[in-house]
Amino acid sequence: MTTTEAGATASSEQTDCGEHVTHGYHKQKGEHLKRLRRIEGQIRGLQRMVDEDTYCIDILTQVSASTKALQSFALQLLEEHLRHCVADAALKGGDEIDAKVDEATKAIGRLLRT
Amino acid sequence: MTTTEAGATASSEQTDCGEHVTHGYHKQKGEHLKRLRRIEGQIRGLQRMVDEDTYCIDILTQVSASTKALQSFALQLLEEHLRHCVADAALKGGDEIDAKVDEATKAIGRLLRT
Amino acid sequence: MTTTEAGATASSEQTDCGEHVTHGYHKQKGEHLKRLRRIEGQIRGLQRMVDEDTYCIDILTQVSASTKALQSFALQLLEEHLRHCVADAALKGGDEIDAKVDEATKAIGRLLRT
Amino acid sequence: MTTTEAGATASSEQTDCGEHVTHGYHKQKGEHLKRLRRIEGQIRGLQRMVDEDTYCIDILTQVSASTKALQSFALQLLEEHLRHCVADAALKGGDEIDAKVDEATKAIGRLLRT
């Protein structure tokens, strides 16, 4: 939101794989931002509900919906990561694939909170 | 979004138990709003990360933190609900307690996504 | 480990609230044991799948089913606990309700793994 | 458990990628079975707890431990799957990688229960 132009320019050299811009990522960028703005709206809705003394259970239902939306966003991101970065690492050969799989598994573990 | 004073006034007749204002709820209100504003900041941070092509795994780490913060908020709310509304229903006697416990269990189930 | 008849007899003096036998608990006991035996069967099924080199994804699907069955069992137990023990604590008055709600909330938190 | 010798023989032609035996999978097989037998023991422990009228909260704690152990097993399996099957699909080229990533993402989604 407050991303500076300079930041946006610099990022065009970066990528979701930490090296080059992958087109898959950029194609989805608009959709990701739209999802996140919707989630931001849900969180602001939660503040309004608390402020207006909405019944607890109704607030909890909204929390469940927001959590689900966040998990769904994470899953989409993960899918692109596996398709581009993990697959790229496999093609490159060497130890890269082990590092990438290890990293992805740890991220999934954090999502599962095991 | 822009909770009016009128809204706040009207809500003083409501309550987290759906009937009267319980003081426990109001005491925590400021803390709840603070937590939610912090979560809103995390979601805006996620938008910035996507916009700046941050590495997927770093975005996923931030999603996990936001989900955790939401679950933690839900748990706090649930605790107050059990302490005030469910306990009140038990004191009132009658069928009220069954309805309240059933409702709370369903809310917990949604949080667990079973 | 191998629950003796004596153990079963002794337990009739105990209760799910830590004091007296509540009938709600005993009524559900058979159903709980049936659910748990089904879950035990699922876990043995998982061992068979690993032993027979079943495709990973199919094993993961079975793990999800078992986890869901466990969460569903937990939710049922929690419902009875809220209906009997937490409600009883409310009727007794005093600090008991705070301790019971605190304890139940912590258990829910562990289930959510926040 | 009731795995027949015939079954075990047949499975030696199968693999975790649905085609050939990958050695990575077989190296971990003993560890997987050990983990699953421990989880089976936990589930039997739960039956004993219910049978002996153990306090609900203590049963819930044990359920959380079993769920965590199952998720941890799933994560280990997923890691091997990504390292072997998904990476293999990337090397093969063609549409295989898309199908494998799609399948893995759906399995992760089921684990997250989104």
UniProtKB/TrEMBL annotation, chains A, B, C, D:
It comes from the Bacteria. Residues 1-15 have a biased composition (Low complexity). This is Transcriptional regulator. Residues 17-30 have a biased composition (Basic and acidic residues). InterPro entries: Metal_Tscrpt_repr, Metal_Tscrpt_repr_sf. It comes from Streptomyces malaysiense. Residues 1-30 are annotated as: Disordered. Its main location: cytoplasm. Keywords: Copper, Cytoplasm, DNA-binding, Metal-binding, Repressor, Transcription, Transcription regulation. Pfam families: Trns_repr_metal. Belongs to the CsoR family. It is found in: Cytoplasm. GO terms for cellular component: cytoplasm; protein-DNA complex. GO terms for molecular function: DNA-binding transcription repressor activity; metal ion binding; transcription cis-regulatory region binding.
